[in-house]
Amino acid sequence: DRLQETNYLKCSGFSVLPRISFYPVHYSNLGEFFKQRETNDTMTPDWLTAEVIGVHIWNKLSYGEPVFRNSTQYYTQLARIHCPATFSIAPDVF
After folding, report:
1. Which residues form the Alpha 1,4-glycosyltransferase domain (predicted)?
2. Domain boundaries, the chain
3. Rounded mean pLDDT of 1-24?
4. Can you give the pTM of this predicted structure?
5. Are the beta carbons of 31 and 64 closer than 8 angstroms?
6. Could you write out the DSSP letters of every residue in 1-59?
7. Measured between alpha carbons, how far is 25 from 93 in angstroms, rounded to an integer?
8. pLDDT digits over 36-70, tens only?
């Protein structure tokens, strides 16, 4: 329980980061990653803060969710920006 309350902990080069660093979206809101946005929607999601360094997509729950290469899905946007080499060879639907 105390670990969950920890904001940031570093000990001998080992860092424990807060939950928000990897779980900015609760599993019950998983659809946010895969929802198509309006083309002119340039808003950054409110959960994507400077504290976020990775995004857990709840693999068991998101398995089979299509991600479209030329879409406005947050998943696509994150992949395009943060994994450009992988994204450049991704198929149209991945």
Report:
1. 4-89
2. 19-88
3. 73
4. 0.74
5. no
6. -HHHH-S-EEETTEEE--GGGT--S-GGGTHHHH----TT--PPPTT--TT-------H
7. 23
8. 988 877 778 888 888 888 889 999 999 999 999 99
